[in-house]
Structure formats: C-alpha cells, structure tokens
Amino acid sequence: MLAAEVAEVLPGARGLRDVPDRDDAVALALPGPLAAVTQLRTAVAAWVVLHLDVPRPRSFTSPEHLARIVDAVYASLRVAGSSTFRFEAAGADSAVFARLAGLLHEATGLRHEPATGDLVVRVRRGPRRGDADPGWDVLVRVGPRPLSARTWRVADFPGAANATIAAAVARLAGVHGGDRVLNLMAGSGTLLVERLLVGPAAAAVAVDLDPAALDAARANLEAARLLTRPPRPALLRADATDAAALLDVVVQPLGGAADVVLADPPWGTLHGSHADAPRLHAGLLRAAHAVTAPGARLVVLTHEVKVMERVVRDAAELWTPRSVTRVYAKGHHPRIHVLDRR
To answer: What's the CA gap between 33 and 29, in Å, rounded?
Structure first.
C-alpha cells in the first residue's frame, strides 16, 4: 500500500524495494529536495539513510563520514526546521556519541538534547553480508515530528487509531466523490478525518455511543477544517450494533443508504472487554448491513483477529470478504478487513 502511495506522491522515486529483515519499511532513492515526502499519509516516518562501511561509530567523526551525516541533517532541516537533536542508538550516552554530538553542534548550530531533541539521528548496525563486517547505518528523520503526527489531532481519546493506519483504511475503502460515508464506533474521529482529507464525499456521518468520544471527534474535525465545508459531517450518538437505532438516525443525514462504512471497534484492553468482542463485532456487521446500499464496502480495523475471522465467516450471507491487511501499531498487529455487501 505504501508503495502505491509512493508512486503517486513521489513520481521521481527510484529503486523502491523492501528493507531486508523488515516487514514494515521500504527504501528508495529520491533525487532532489525531500519536501514532497511529507505528503505521504500512510508512512509513519521518513528517514535519510546513510551506510557507513566502518567497524565502529568512533569513525563517524572522520571528516569524510561527518560531512555525509551533516549533509543528511541539512536535508532534513530544509523540509522543516529544528533547533535540537538527539541520538537513538545503543551507547548514545558514551564518549563517542558525546564527541559526535559536539561536532554536529559545531557544523549545524543544533543543540544536543539527549531526551527531548526534535531531530532524530538513529544509529544501528547495517544489514548482514555473509562473514563481512556489516558496517553501520545512520538514519536522520525527515522533519522534527513523525509523519504520523497530525496537526489536526487536538483532542486525544484512549485507544484512538493511529492516523497513518487510518489513512490506509481510507485508501483500502476507495475514495469516490459520490460516496455517502458512515463512520461507526467513530471514537475521536480519526478514520473519518483521514477519509475526508484524502478526497471528497457526498455525505459523512460519525456515530458513537460515548458523548466524550463525539466531543473529541468534533474537536478534531474542526481542527482539520472539515466541519464547515462540504459534506459538513454530522456527529450522532447511537449504538452501532443496533440496526433499528442506526436506521432511525443515519439515513436522513446521509441522504440515503451508506456506500462505505468505516469502523474501529473498541479494543478490549481499553474499552469494554475481550469477552464482549464477539457480540460487538457480530452486531457491527449486522447493523452495517442494515444501513448500507447493495455493493457497499465495509472496512473494519480490529485488534480482535480471531474474533473477526469467526464473525466474518458467520456473516457470509451478508458480506463477502475482499481483503485482509496486517498492519503494525505499537507492538501489535491489528487487521484491516474489507468486505463487500451482498
């Protein structure tokens, strides 16, 4: 998915490839300025990567290697300014890194703040190459914040979806200007915000049972400047597992049956309970079917992997599975299910 977005956003990129021994990263060559990288919405972070074929980090301070690291720092600073930096590395508090920090300060003017520095310089061993010494990789993050940090997120909510994953949900759902978009179990509105930012919709409604969640969603939609521009999303309180209740409240503001439903069921460790997950997921699929048009898409982001697999099998008369995508979220691997309405 990220590869497809890279092709759209960074047409000048060359040599797109998987990173060895990683299932959550890709590498590419991008000639020229890096500013366009910040337009990627399904990437958590972007890094300038240098490989230094040296046995120990102490060699980083040689004029040749230091110049390359400084150039990478300036490439990041040209995208977004920073005043401080920090290392992420084993031995970051050693004399070797203290020496490197001093040289980077002299070359760039950035202050070394070990705990809170904005610009991140990550150091790790390079990829293994048989019996040869792997050398070292130096990675400089593009910009002072991860790409996944969104300026519109002014109200957080426990268990809120990662915005990068929400952007992936929007892409998997498909973006069509005529869609009536319904966000069930909306929480703080992450899925709906990312969907509306990526493209137009005919109508949009967010539903949650928790008033505090709806307040957070309203604040985030407002910060994203989406409340006052078409389709002017409505926020409604209702039980997303109750088909009759949903029909009563969402059809009128949507202007008809929904064409796409986005849902992020509560994660049992933060809201509700794992024991209640089967009922919650099964009710979601039934209620979503009741308020959607034939051929509609249902996209569900869930941490309840086994529960969702079982519920989808049981709902075979209502929904046809299209795809399942495994994503990474803070040490966990939730799934994005895309289903087509029968």
So the answer is: 12
Mapped onto helix, strand or coil, the DSSP state of residue 155 is coil
Q: CATH number of the domain at 163-341, please?
A: 3.40.50.150
Domain spans, the chain:
2-141, 163-341
pLDDT tens digits for range 43-88? 999 999 999 999 999 999 999 999 999 999 999 999 999 999 999 9
* Other Cβ atoms within 10 Å of 205 Cβ, number: 28
Q: How far apart are CA 195 and CA 181, in angstroms?
A: 9
pLDDT digit string (tens) for 181-218? 999 999 999 999 999 999 999 999 999 999 999 999 99
Q: Hey, is 219 helix, strand or coil?
A: helix
Q: Per-residue DSSP letters for 25-76? A: -EEEE--S--GGGGG-SS-S--EEEEEE--SSGGGGGSHHHHHHHHHHHHHH
Structure tokens at 285: 């699929």
Say how far apart CA 13 and CA 7 lie, in whole Å. Answer: 7
- Using DSSP, state whether 318 is helix, strand or coil: coil
Q: Which of 256, 238, 232, 260 is nearest to 175 (CA)?
A: 260
Pairing of strands 335-341, 292-302: antiparallel
- List the structure tokens of 170: 């929007």
DSSP for 169-218 reads HHHHH---TT-EEEEES-TTSHHHHHHHHHS--SEEEEEES-HHHHHHHH
Q: CATH topology for 2-141?
A: VC0802-like (3.30.2130)
Burial class (CB in 10 A: 0-12, 13-18, 19+), 20: exposed
Nearest to 166 by CA among 142, 138, 185, 139: 185
CA angle 66, 71, 72 (to 5 degrees): 100
Overall size of the chain counted in residues: 342
